[in-house]
Design goal:
By secondary structure, the chain is α/β, with parallel strands linked by helices. The chain folds into three domains: 81 residues, Thrombin, subunit H (Beta Barrel); 236 residues, P-loop containing nucleotide triphosphate hydrolases (Rossmann fold), CATH 3.40.50; 160 residues, Orthogonal Bundle (Bovine Mitochondrial F1-ATPase, ATP Synthase Beta Chain, Chain D, domain3), CATH 1.10.1140. Helix 11 runs antiparallel to helix 13. The longest helix has 27 residues.
Length: 525
């Protein structure tokens, strides 16, 4: 009897079973002759449309599997066919510029590719002897990442954040910036996220002209948990083909790795396993390692992975986030507080880290600059409580300089994105590492202390500040800078008021607002 076309074409003896029970996505099947091995794919229903993956052999005659498709119409007593092999994914140059689901079926309304080979999605990680240990920087064109959290070519990077802080936007921007310079293949894997985002990404990549070197694989949130649990393995199988057979570098983008863990949790619960802490599956560490360890550099090529990681309730101690941290070479933590202040990308500059940030890899100048930036921002963070209680005026002159530098650095490290041009109306900017370092160095040397903070907000290179607001009257602009800071940060309002009283601007004829006078009178009384 023949396999289904997607599973490869071969002739074999038929092995049929019977459905014994159906509970949601969990299906028990009885086989009287040959019991299918673990990970075998079974098909049932009209034209084999219901796909089941065997996860347990209950006894000598029964297997328990999880359905990778909806089980509507499946009933006890229905015939089930053993396909004789595991789930397979298409590989080959014919899959480039295409969009697939977990079964390798095209989602882009085009004919199925013909010049492809089908390989099992359950591959072993590369042996230690084949792995490469060379460290190289992977530039993104995003200032804050290239300066403070440099990425590793062939490494794994995580974008950590709660709901609505910009993980997908940042990932989309990285795709836009990197795919143009990436000589290899890019593979986007959507796990358990919105269907709309997949459609938008496909359209954007097509308009940008980068689809010829890109493959997309989706198992979105409307899919059953079994499908979401395997789509990451299918995408990795495609990536491994380009790395090992074509000897090309691969950029693998995963959105969202937490949804992979969540799908595993659902599968584990459906299979009747006892949950561990916070309801996660007891095998979470093993399942995540099975996926992550396949993402590696070898002597043939490299797979560079960037993964969005949803953090439940913004809790970085959640087991899913903790297990994911251990696999990464760089962790980019997104902050809701920075997002609320309008500082995009909303990356927490002190919590984010990279194993690449050492003098031997990024160079002495870059390392020292990054350390000085972190030190300045950490000092500002410590001084915020003092400013809130006593005001900026009570700080020592050196501390006031630190605050000024830190606030200018925070604003310079914002950047307009190509991905958000249609919403913000600001043209996107791609900034080289050299320009980013030069800008930070000039701010730390106080070369922009006479420029207001708003001149450094949402610009590309540091020269953008000069074009945005030419420095004609240093004293006047410095005063406006303090007022703007007070407006942006209520904690600095007291200092702004005292500065206005002690250093009146000759060209300003405005009177104090009545509300301020009333507030002062009430306080005195």
């Amino acid at each position: 009897m023949k396999f289904d076309q997607e599973m490869g074409s071969t002739t074999r003896l038929a092995n049929f079973g019977t459905v014994v029970s159906v509970r949601g996505s969990v299906v028990d099947v009885r086989f009287d002759e040959l019991l299918p091995p673990i990970y075998s794919v079974l098909r049932a229903g009209d034209k084999g449309r219901i796909v089941i993956e065997v996860l347990a052999q209950r006894d000598a005659r029964h297997v328990r599997g999880i359905a990778l498709t909806p089980t509507q119409g499946l009933a006890r007593g229905m015939a089930v066919e053993d396909t004789g092999g595991p789930l397979k994914a298409p590989v080959g140059t014919g899959i480039l510029s295409r969009m697939f689901d977990v079964f390798g079926k095209p989602l882009d309304r085009q004919a199925a590719p013909t010049d492809v080979e089908w390989r099992t999605v359950h591959q072993a990680p590369p042996a230690l002897a084949r792995r490469s240990t060379k460290s190289e920087i992977f530039e993104t064109g995003i200032k804050v990442i290239d300066v403070l959290v440099p990425l590793e070519r062939g490494g794994k990077t995580g974008l950590f954040g709660g709901a609505g802080v910009g993980k997908t936007v940042l990932l989309t921007e990285m795709i836009h910036n990197m795919i143009g310079h990436q000589k290899g293949v890019s593979i986007f894997c959507g796990i358990g996220e919105r269907c709309r985002e997949g459609e938008e990404l496909y359209r954007d990549m097509k308009e940008a002209g980068v689809l010829p070197n890109m493959v997309m694989v989706f198992g979105q949130m409307n899919e059953p948990p079994g499908s979401r649990f395997r789509v990451g393995h299918a995408a990795l199988t495609m990536a491994e083909y380009f790395r090992d057979d074509e000897h090309r570098d691969v950029l693998l983008l995963i959105d969202n790795i937490f949804r992979y863990i969540q799908a595993g949790m659902e599968v584990s619960g459906l299979m009747g396993q006892m949950p561990s802490r916070l309801g996660y599956q007891p095998t979470m560490g093993t399942e995540l390692s099975r996926l992550e360890e396949r993402i590696a550099n070898t002597d043939a090529g490299a797979i560079t992975s960037i993964q969005a990681v949803y953090v439940p309730a913004d809790d970085l101690t959640d087991p899913a986030a903790v297990h994911t941290f251990s696999h990464l070479s760089a962790s980019i933590v997104l902050s809701r507080k920075r997002a609320s202040e309008g500082l995009y990308p909303a990356i927490d500059l002190l919590q984010s880290s990279s194993k690449m940030a050492t003098p031997g890899i990024i160079g002495e100048r870059h390392y020292l600059l990054a350390q000085e930036i972190r030190r300045t921002l950490a000092q500002y963070e410590d001084l915020k409580d003092v400013i809130a209680m006593l005001g900026l005026e009570q700080l020592a002159p050196e501390d006031r300089n630190v605050v000024a530098r830190a606030r200018r650095l925070e604003r310079f490290l914002t950047q307009p994105f190509f991905a958000t041009e249609q919403f913000s109306g600001i043209k996107g900017e791609l900034v080289s590492l050299k320009d980013s370092l030069d800008g930070c160095e000039q701010i730390l040397r106080d070369e922009f202390k006479d420029y207001p903070e708003r001149a450094l907000y949402m610009i590309g290179t540091i020269d953008g500040a000069k074009k945005k607001l030419p420095l004609d009257k240093p004293a006047t602009m410095a005063g406006h800078g303090v007022k703007l800071a007070a407006k942006e940060d209520p904690k600095l309002a007291a200092d702004s008021k005292s500065k206005d009283e002690s250093e009146p601007q000759p060209e300003s004829n405005t009177k104090p607002e009545p509300e301020v006078e009333h507030a002062a009178d009430a306080h005195e009384s």
